[in-house]
Automatic annotation (TrEMBL):
Binding residues for ATP: 384-386, 408-413, 497, 512, 523
Top-level taxonomy: Bacteria, Pseudomonadati, Pseudomonadota, Alphaproteobacteria, Hyphomicrobiales
Protein name: Acetyl-coenzyme A synthetase
Annotated GO MF terms: acetate-CoA ligase activity
Positions annotated to bind CoA: 190-193, 308, 332, 520, 581
Origin: domain of life: Bacteria
Xref: Gene3D superfamilies: 3.30.300.30, N-terminal domain of ligase-like
Amino acid sequence: MHDTIHPVPADWSQSARVDAAAYEAMYRRSVEDPNGFWAEQAERLDWIKPFTKVKNTSFAPGAVSVKWFEDGVLNASANCLDRHLATRGDKVAIIWEGDDPSESRSITYRELHAEVNRFANVLKKLGVAKGDRVTIYLPMIPEAAMAMLACARIGAIHSIVFGGFSPDSLAGRIGDCHSKVVITADEGLRGGKKVPLKHNTDTALTKTIGDEKVLVIRRTGSEVAMHAGRDYWYHEIAATVSDVCEPEPMNAEDPLFILYTSGSTGRPKGVLHTTGGYLLHAALTHEIVFDIREDDVFWCTADVGWVTGHSYIVYGPLANGTTVVMFEGIPNYPTNARFWQVVDKHKVTIFHTAPTAIRALMQAGDEPVKSSSRASLRLLGSVGEPINPEAWEWYYRVVGENRCPIVDTWWQTETGGVLITPLPGATPLKPGSASWPFFGVQPAIVDADGKIIEGACEGNLVILDSWPGQMRTVYGDHDRFEQTYFSTYKNMYFTGDGCRRDADGYYWITGRVDDVINVSGHRMGTAEVESALVSHTKVSEAAVVGYPHDIKGQGIYAYVTLMHGVSPSEDLRKELKNWVRAEIGPIATPDLLQFAPGLPKTRSGKIMRRILRKIAEDEFGALGDISTLSDPAVVDDLIANRQNRK
Ligand code: WTA
């Protein structure tokens, strides 16, 4: 079978920031002379004290260390705000589009600067100082970006927890980094439904040390409980402080933020990013991958609770002085035409979303798309999970009317910014492939023995050398950082992804090869869902796997063994699904739950997930060798009662 190829449109190869020749030359230079290349690129940032050293990194076993620009001093918020005031003070920084289509708001760079200064002073008044951790648990309102930049301004380390996470998940993340302040809102608003953020925060704080303060932003105006001495209204303190706060000089390697993400073990990891390298990588990739121009209106539909929101709603675009759209709502509220109405309303030129949203909208048909003009669009983006060629083609043909290139950007919370991606003026597009490495990125594919394989091949994706946006450590647990990413293959960063490379050197990400599943572009550790299930008194054992899901990419399939004497029932199935929902959050709710009297185990007691995956996929004809199971008969029962029948 031949892959479809969409050549680079002539106008793009002429006008884009980087054409094919420039890509080749710049890529070669970036890997042959990383110090020279990145020193030059780093000039795009404003440094309080220039760096003299560029790259100082090692992936060596037992001595993994990542430092970039280590003697440079800068401030991320000053780079996103102050330096634009002279030339872009009256330019719109954030166009906020509310959940309700009648609500929107524009904030200029000058206004955003003043608000962030004020916010920084509010944090100071609550006792927050350089190095302190601040948890942000907010809906998609401008204050979320302001809170991030206010932390950056005073050198506090923000840790955003997605507003869809439960009180328990929130409590774990507040506790792990021992946050001094939690910033939340009375309620969030999504798809016309209220999300009780303050109430969730109250519940979470019954499970933490209890010395945290809470800063509450008024969003819906609903009544919420306020605990004297602990809870403060943002608007009340804001009225008492000035809107001038000098940015704190930060070393390039001072932490900027922590973001918790799922891995193959139970507890989420606090991925730590620092100031200089991260900001440079976010800003440079944003400009080059999306070919950013001064008058672009850039809309990334992610939530700031995920890394995509950090890098491509806040830090990258604002460092570049771009106008961004920030959207509070969801793709299908009030109708399936919402995205395209917002595109028309704000004249969006670059639209960046996740394959799960594209697939859902594709299912709703072409009509809602065609009811809009979309004439302002010039470039489309995809991120978060592999995009199937059918969804890619629909996005290209129907949304972009065969006019807009699609950049399919592969990266991870750990990588800080995009690592593998087409560039719209340089890369012929193959639907479903993230294509080629970005500057400075050296991907390789290894076989089961960890040997690098060349040419067209398939195996596991590793990165051979550091890039500026790489995570520096797992917060408070450097051993776990080394163990997770550098112990599987020596001297290489292991991504956790499987990958194929074709004869043209295009990379095709095939999905996670560890116990992480990708549900609607959200990372979920199967171990997290399992531990939520076994914490229910009626559950004795649980195993969770992913299975192919038309809209979500992967769905969550749970096998549950009940305690002795407990009988399975539809009510219990519902109860257990709701239990996980309440323990972790709605995104973790199992799609399918099968009661299993026994799980397939080896004689040494290890659950054979390979078999569970096959049955979940409804591919039980190909179970392979099951003779090593301690009780092969359990497999017959699993097959007979499987929940996914195609
Ligand atoms: C997957 C999101 C295929 C991948 C930015 C990765 C992708 C995980 C793509 C990271 C893509 C992300 N094509 N797969 N374009 N982008 N992934 O940390 O499995 O939430 O390891 O970062 O998402 O998810 P994370």
